[in-house]
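Try this one yourself first.
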């Protein structure tokens, strides 16, 4: 019959406790868990299991990143901030219980020493920094791309409105007063009202490059000038007068100036 001393097969060995692994996992994610579980397997002289532990930790980290990045913001915002860490910490806790729980329990019952929880916490902290650096990198690269896509989509509508509204000048010498006023009321002026709003909305998009922000300032002035000119056209047509020609010429001169700024 084995003595208690003979049963104490882990005497002299040091492990990370299940609790320490759980705490490190909560803050550092599956990567921290994979590293700590790997270290325990190496102490047990199980290199194959150690390799699997770090591999599964990496794969789980990729999965968590994918879940966070691919889930729409409006859905993510509905969940408490700590929900995802609590879920993967609980899963890791069960995995450690299944793979190392018995040996860690016996190690504790025999009063053997565990590695300091502070060391496990440091591993979690380092993993958390890596986690945050990836998130910040994602935000810097991909979120900027998303913002530019939003901006481009708005500008596509803007330039479509511009192109269609400038067709008015083709109809100016061809159509009668009523048709021209109808076009201005129902098509042209609404398009430039929309364009003014598009530029105002575009300026609210975050993280746009400075050159685009400066361009928006010019485009807003340009849009307001176009809107003013078409309103004045309508007034001149309704009153059947040329008294606004000088004012229109001045507005068009300002429009040309803004267009040169945009092209530069």
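Now uncover the answer:
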């Amino acid at each position: 019959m084995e003595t208690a001393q003979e049963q104490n097969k882990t005497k002299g060995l040091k492990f990370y406790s299940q609790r320490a692994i759980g705490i490190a996992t909560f803050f550092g994610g599956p990567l921290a868990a994979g590293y700590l579980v790997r270290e325990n397997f190496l102490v047990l002289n199980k290199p194959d299991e150690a390799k699997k532990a770090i591999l599964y930790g990496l794969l789980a980290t990729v999965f968590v990143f994918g879940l966070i990045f691919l889930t729409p913001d409006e859905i993510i915002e509905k969940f408490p901030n700590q929900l995802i860490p609590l879920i993967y910490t609980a899963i890791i806790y069960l995995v450690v219980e299944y793979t190392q729980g018995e040996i860690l329990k016996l190690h504790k019952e025999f009063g053997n020493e565990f590695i300091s929880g502070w060391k496990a916490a440091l591993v979690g902290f380092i993993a958390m920094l890596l986690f945050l650096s990836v998130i910040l990198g994602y935000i810097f690269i991909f979120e900027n791309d998303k913002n530019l896509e939003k901006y481009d989509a708005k500008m596509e509508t803007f330039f479509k409105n511009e192109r269609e509204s400038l067709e008015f000048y083709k109809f100016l010498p061809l159509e009668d007063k009523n048709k021209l006023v109808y076009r201005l009321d129902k098509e042209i002026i609404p398009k430039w009202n929309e364009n003014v709003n598009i530029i105002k909305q575009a300026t609210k998009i975050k993280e746009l490059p400075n050159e685009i922000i400066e361009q928006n300032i010019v485009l807003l002035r340009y849009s307001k000038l176009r809107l003013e000119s078409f309103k004045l056209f309508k007034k001149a047509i309704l009153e059947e007068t040329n008294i606004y020609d000088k004012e229109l010429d001045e507005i068009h001169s300002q429009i040309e100036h803004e267009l040169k700024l945009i092209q530069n």
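Discussion: Residues 4-141 form one domain. The chain has two domains: 4-141, 166-263.
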